[in-house]
Amino acid sequence: MARQFSGTLYDGQSAAGIDVMVEIVSVGLMLTKPDGSTDIWPYDSFTVMSAKRDGNRIAVSRVGASDERLTIAGSGVRDALDIYAPQHRRKSGRDTKQAILVSLAIIATLAGLYFAYPVLKNAVVAVIPESWAVAWGEAVVDSVPGTGDTCDDPAGMAVLQRLTEALTVNADLPYDARVRVDKSRTVNAFAAPGGQVVLLSGLITDAETMDEVAGVLAHELGHVRHKHALKRLIDIFGIQIVFSGIGGDLGTAGGLIMVLSYGRDDEREADETGIEILKKAGMPADGLVRFFDRLATKRAEMPNFSDFLSTHPSLNERSMATRAMVGDYVGKMPFSEEDWQALRWICGDPDADNEEAEEAEGTE
Amino acid sequence: MDKMEPYFGQPREPVPAPEASGPEKLDCDADGGELFGIHVISLFLTIITLGIYRFWWKTRVRRYMWSHFRYKDDAFEYTGTGLELFVGFVIVLFLVVLPITGLNIAAFWLMENGNEVLGGLILGLFYIIVAVLFGAAIYRALMYRLSRTLWRGIRGGLTGSSFGYSFRYFGYTLLQIVTLWLATPYVTIKLFEYQLNNVWLGSGRLQFHADWRPLFKIYLLPGIIFGIGFAVLIFGYVDMLMTQMELTEALEADNQERADELLQEMASPGGLIALGLLVLFVGWIALFWYNAALYRTILAGSSFEGVAFSGKLTGGRFLKFHLFNWFILAVTGGIAYPWVQVRWLNLIVEVVEIHGEPDFTKIAQSTEDMPKFGEGLAEAFL
Ligand SMILES: [Zn+2]
After folding, report:
1. pTM of this structure
2. Which among A233, A213, A308, A231 has a CA at the least distance from the CA of A270?
């Protein structure tokens, strides 16, 4: 292997170089200039800045403040440096190896996060004070279209209050439930962070019996029991942190309303807990099942932001699952027909709404 | 001494007859796969350092690209460091970003607390400061990069003042608005004139002069198409707004019939908006021919110590280049980005033609002061 090569020395003062002979010796590069004078560049005084892919030309930079540069050319010069100057050995495929290691590390980290995340999330949810959850919940509720026109008919409010108390007294909720009815034609209900439950009046008008309203409310209280909304809020927050960390803007996509789009598992859990809450209150538990059945037939009209009407798992699936949970349990509704009518009138005349709706649809 | 004979006494670089083998080219042997390795490692380090590593990330990528880019077989060298970029960022954060953010907050606080006039004035001041800093950010980033770019050990540099540039940038932006962007060729050439005439390699200075008028002729086609597109778009948008207002009224008056009618009518402004967007898309395709001509003009108008340049980029070539970039980025979900970066370097190699050669003995080391830290403003604004 040749140890002698021709080179060009750039002194850092001018872009015109001088020809030198470069010899790879034990202590470094020995430069011999045209006038015969020699100079040694110790191995730790320079870095290999660039090498051509054929390995026949390298550029060497002095370390530190010096602008001296040296180009060494000749067949096999890069290989020669590998052999005689271990400090400057090519780290062949170093970046590729590192990339593989790093990829494995990323996968391991993600897997670790995937398993640790629910535990971390529950820990965080447990320490968030109720007052924060309530404040966030208000922001979430405000972001839902169709809310804000809260109904306050005294007789209806009294029934709603009694229904809420009957359901929550044994429900083991982390917060006081704050249930309200907002005037809207949409058939929907949702549970926001901090125990806030909003029933849209369309749901009450649409229900055929009070059992159904109680069933929906119990389902929403199931979300409250498990703090689902708060957990979703943390999911969204986490996604935003990850994406803003990488430098993307994806985190800002989607708004607070995403908090209300629960996943499959949350819905099942809320259904299960809802049935349990109804049973503990001694109320009939098949109202929820009937509500699912009825909705399944007209699901196509439903808006897609909803919690209660979320399409996954399918309404048929949920109907079957809840039916199984109810079993042969029979409860009794502690409310009279007058109570039911009072609740139906909480936002004023419910049939006025219906007529309008029918007119709009032009059918039924 | 005998064995050294072959190394001396022969011409250092055989001087070719001028243009004997056509114009000279740059050379690049960067590899997308190698660059990909750098990106993956840096991405990981950036995530685990909560973003801090990105300054080192940029540095590693530049160092790689520069060192694989050659003129006369000698590679360019990038000597910037991640630390310089990081410190530059921190300085700008505390000296610029936080104070002007405070200004912004103060303006809104004043306006909400009844002092609309003072609040409005401060808000106006805020926007002017941001607009002026924007041009300065572009210029200072270039200053930093050129001062960290070496060739044969000779430092590059950018003189002139970043605020000189930013006031021009600000003024020209106003001109753009007043002329509905028809001044684009003029503005672009003028800004390049300021910038490029301040580019140095050591004691050698780049010179750039070009006429914007031929470019303006090429710009007219995309310019007119854009004009039509925006007009259609605005017309459709206004139509849409008015129909919507009527619809709201109809709904409030419970006039279902009228509302249904209006909903049907919504299709026509919707179609106009779609048409406007389509026209803008066509204009944007036509813009590739303008941009190719712009780059050719910039190269042809530049000279460096007796060296002339030319470029042979065509609009079709430029469009194909971009289409392929987007295609591979879309297909790979962005993973092909390093290969796109290498494609850009190769496009420069393909396009840039160099005529003649400077007297290298006359290019001495730069005596300019170098900026100590890097690109903080650009980090903040770009
Ligand atoms: Zn639910």
Report:
1. 0.64
2. A308
